[in-house]
Each structure stands twice: as structure tokens, then as C-alpha cells.
């Protein structure tokens, strides 16, 4: 089913996120849902739309490493652990990093860490830049369903719950980003 919402520009999507809205957008491999991670109401709306348990935590995606500084405690990693993550960015790799004490449970879930990525998708990087900080990035599917590789695979329930669909397409990867533990380097997903 194709969406009734018109495609919005990256600039329009950044403004919608800034106003507390939910945006459907292409990432490297799948279509994602995003919002302002510091807006509790927006995040809770996103979690309810996905039917996702808050305890699992969410991924934050950024256009630049500095946009993650408010959320992660880089000082808890040694130089090599930090460098290992930085070498993969911008890119298709998400890293689980210890979070700052102020990181709310609606982002970190039951963890003392947060999953973060500096995206290689130019439109998403620009959206984060125009928004001025990282955004939530979770696949645009109901919690029990597969991640959508194409816009046509996004369910009617998800489409009905977003405020905009960002122009663009995925970068063609065939899965969500790979997730690594920053302390060990181990692949988690």
C-alpha cells in the first residue's frame, strides 16, 4: 500500500521533528521512524506506534559525532574502543556505548548504554544537521514484523501514524545496520 502523505523535503522533515512530529525516512538499509529523542511525548508516541517495549531502548542516528555527545559517555571507553567506532563512521555500523547519566529511560531502556550511529545516508545526515542534533532511528515496522527495505513494505498502521515521509530512497543495503558492543567490539546484531 502506498502512502497518502506527500513526500516532504529533508528541511521540512527536520522542522517536523523539531515540532515533536514523527517522520518516516530512508536509512542505509531500511525505512526508519525518527523523532526528537529529547521530546518524551514524541518518543512515547513512536514506541506506541511500533508497539515496542520501552525497556529495549532505541538507536540514535546523527550526521556528525558531536551530535551524539549529549547522549554518550565517551570517557568510559579507552582510546582504541573509541577509535574503533569512529573508524566505521559515517557508515552502516551502530555502536552500543555507555550513556550519560542524564540519558532518559525512554531512550536507553533498561540499559546503562545507548546505541548510536553516524549515518552514511546523505539525506539523513542533512536532516540531523538541519535539526541540530541526533534523532531517534528505529525501523518503520511493528515490533513483531520484518524491517521494511522499501517504502511499499511499510504497513498501513505505521503510515497512518507518521506526520511526514522524507524524500529519498535507502542506500540499498538489505538489512538494518550492524550493531556492535563498543567495549568488546562484538557484533550484537
General description of the model:
It contains 6 helices and 9 strands. It is of the alpha/beta class and 189 residues long. The protein has one domain: DHBP synthase (Alpha-Beta Complex). Strands 1-8-2-3-7-4-6-5-9 form a 9-stranded mixed beta sheet. Strand 2 and strand 3 form a beta hairpin. The longest helix is centred in the first third of the chain and has 11 residues. The radius of gyration is 15 Å and the shape is globular. The protein starts with 6 loop residues before the first strand and ends in an 8-residue tail after the last strand.
Task: State the main characteristics.
189 residues; alpha/beta; DHBP synthase; 9-stranded mixed beta sheet; 6 helices; 9 strands; 20% strand; globular
CATH class: Alpha Beta
Largest sheet: 9 strands, mixed
- The CATH architecture category equals Alpha-Beta Complex
Rounded to an integer, what's the Rg over CA atoms?
Answer: 15 Å
Low-confidence regions: none
Number of strands: 9
The third-level CATH topology is DHBP synthase
Measured distance between first and last alpha carbons: 29 Å
Quickly give the structural class: alpha/beta
Basic shape: globular
**SSE string, helix = H, strand = E?**
EHEEHEHEHEHEHEE
Quaternary form: single chain
Name the CATH superfamily classification. Answer: DHBP synthase
Enumerate the strands of the largest sheet in spatial order, edge to edge or round the barrel.
Answer: 1-8-2-3-7-4-6-5-9
Helix content: 25-40%
Tally the helices: what do you get? 6
Overall average pLDDT:
94
The amount of beta strand, in percent, is: 15-25%
Question: How many discrete domains?
Answer: 1
Amino acid at each position: 500500500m502506498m502512502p497518502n502523505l506527500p513526500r516532504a523535503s529533508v528541511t521540512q522533515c527536520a522542522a517536523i521533528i523539531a515540532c515533536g512530529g514523527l517522520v518516516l525516512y530512508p536509512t542505509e538499509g531500511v525505512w526508519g521512524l525518527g523523532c526528537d529523542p529529547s521530546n518524551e511525548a514524541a518518543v512515547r508516541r513512536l514506541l506506541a506506534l511500533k508497539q515496542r517495549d520501552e525497556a529495549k531502548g532505541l538507536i540514535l542516528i546523527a550526521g556528525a559525532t558531536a551530535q551524539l555527545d549529549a547522549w554518550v559517555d565517551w570517557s568510559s571507553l579507552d582510546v582504541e574502543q573509541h577509535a574503533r567506532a569512529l573508524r566505521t563512521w559515517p557508515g552502516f555500523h551502530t555502536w552500543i556505548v555507555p550513556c550519560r547519566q542524564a540519558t532518559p529511560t525512554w531512550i536507553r531502556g533498561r540499559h546503562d548504554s545507548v546505541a548510536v550511529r553516524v549515518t552514511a545516508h546523505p539525506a539523513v545526515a542533512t536532516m540531523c544537521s538541519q535539526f541540530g542534533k541526533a534523532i531517534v532511528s528505529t525501523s518503520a515496522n511493528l515490533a513483531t514484523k520484518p524491517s521494511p527495505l522499501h517504502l511499499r513494505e511499510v504497513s498501513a498502521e505505521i503510515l497512518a501514524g507518521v506526520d511526514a515521509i522524507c524524500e529519498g530512497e535507502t542506500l540499498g543495503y538489505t538489512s538494518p545496520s550492524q550493531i556492535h558492543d563498543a567495549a568488546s567490539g562484538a557484533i550484537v546484531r
